[in-house]
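>> Question from a student workshop board

For tomorrow's exercise we were told to take the sequence and the ligand below, predict the bound structure, and bring the output to class. My setup keeps failing. Could a helper post the expected result so I can at least see what it should look like? The ligand is HQG.
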Amino acid sequence: MNEKDLKRTSKFLSLILRHQPEKIGLTLDTHGWASVDELIKKSNSNNISFTKEELDFVVRTNDKQRFTFNEDKTKIRANQGHSLKNVTIVTETKTPPPFLYHGTVAKFIPSIKENGLQKMSRQHVHLSSDLETAKKVGSRRGKPIILTVQSDHMHKKGFKFFLSENGVWLTNLVPTQFIKFEDL
Ligand code: HQG
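>> Workshop helper replied:
Here is what the output should look like for this input. Compare the format with yours to find the bug.
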């Protein structure tokens, strides 16, 4: 598989396993798992073909480790990023580090100042423990602006945090008083 095919397949898997499994007639269980055989068969009949070995390669080499197989590799799911409402991926709460970061862009700042960080279309607000990742996330939309979240304060106030399999910190809402806007 070349770089282009890898990226295309990864994007397709994100779409199907996080947002629209029905696009290829696939159903996920309540924990977001899809049958590998069914995924391959239904993808193939929707003009995106890959073998089990190629799927394995995509999962193994994915830059953000977006997908996980179950133990016997009969099932696959996305680790985070879902907009689907009826699947639960992360259940165990975790104590976050003192600060977490969120990359965004200038046009959202007035609304974030007013309403805090919201889940928008996804199941959670996505945060990272390192600045570099937050920078990359923000850069998807333009010149990145990094917000610092006082996760320790939030945690002490009873806000729940979750850590996805691939190291993304998730929470339901970051109220504005826990965000450092610096000079914005
Ligand atoms: C913004 C990618 C206005 C928020 C990334 C963001 C990540 C608000 C956008 C993962 C707001 C939502 C998630 C408010 C938040 N008013 N705008 N109150 N609260 N926003 O894509 O965090 O590559 O749903 O700042 O790398 O950008 O797909 O979230 O700009 O890990 O694996 O609303 O998606 O991962 O956008 O990205 P998103 P995100 P993958």
